[in-house]
Amino acid sequence: SEGTMSNNCNIIVCDIGGGTTDVAVVQCQTKDSPNGQKDLSFNVLCTSPYGNGLGGDRFDSRLVGYLTDKGAKYKSTPKYVLSYLAKVLKGYLSEVASAEIPLINADWDVECANNRKPIKLSCTREKFVNIISPDLQELENILKGVSKEFVEKYPEEYNNESILLPVGGSSRIPRIKEMLLKIFTNATMVDSDDDF
To answer: The whole model's pTM is what?
Structure first.
């Protein structure tokens, strides 16, 4: 809302969606209009390269690969089910340090439920971060590129108040939040559900 932002501030939007990561630095300015109200204007200062292919779906695929490489017990599970459950597991690991999901609750796994012990997907946050470490390195490079362009092309604007706005499901991963704050050191992070 206008009440909590200064007249000139930057909004750094980091959208880590399913298929891509999109980062934009947007300058927000308020000016008094002739009718006594405030006019709000936005100007995009810099963005990440388009079509980088780095997103939550890749994190999920790496987790599925890890699980299927881990043991034969996951190999008979349909890949689309593992992909869905990996997405759920990733969501849990954004909130807790370790998570476990039983597989036998699905209709397709009746044979498993009748003939074997329940199979569970389990992972720790630390292990998940290790699994997606190549993607985290790529993400860090993308973020550093945007930050460098911001500092070099817009040094005056860089010194204004900045709000860091992570959006998209994978932006909730704690390691990614830490990375954002480390790279955009002058920004204050807000939750995408917050009023700012």
So the answer is: 0.83
